[in-house]
Amino acid sequence: MQRSRTSEKSVKRIVLIDDHPIMRHGLAQLIRAEEGLDVIGEAGSVREGLEVVGRLKPDLAVVDLTLPDKNGLELVKDIRAQHPSTFCIVLSMHEETLYGERALRAGARGYVMKEEAADHLVTAIHKVLTGGLYVSESLNARMLEQVTGVARSKAIGMDALTDRELEILALIGKGVATKIIAAQLSISARTVEAHRAHIKEKLTMTDGAALVRYAVQWVESHAKL
Fold this sequence. Notes:
2 domains; 5 strands; Rossmann fold; 5-stranded parallel β-sheet; Arc Repressor Mutant, subunit A; disordered N terminus; alpha/beta; 225 residues
């Protein structure tokens, strides 16, 4: 009996936060197949995810970026602020070059592309749970270049957008009206308009209609994310 209790204590507890039930099911099977890991809860939105993490207090949360109520980066920030003992790994189909560093800045300890989950997620989980960081070799090289000053050029284009600006760009591309964006993000409509102006400036656009077209095309190109 004592051995059983010790074994249970050594099992690391994980929650999955992704709005696709089939994806959560597959990830749960993948993780539970690894000795010492267990999935103890699931959620399909930022609101549900924060509630599940607060209630179950897992060792680690696997978070998707594309969630119905808010961007997954906001959830990572909330988890790190409210539940600092829970590590986060972002698992997403979004381009690592655009979101990888953002995820780490938000407080995530790892970033894994969904298409590579079968090969790398369990490895990432073990590395993060032992205090390490997990990113691809290419992202790691890019981050090292920035730290050493090899690539210390000013960010331009999409890379220059803040997390909130990127979130608003995605909502614009989905056809969400300014007032709805404001309500969803708990900010004023005037603040949304200010963000739109900053986005246009950073993307070198002077026409609001051009921004909408760009946003729609960008969202459509990520339709499978």
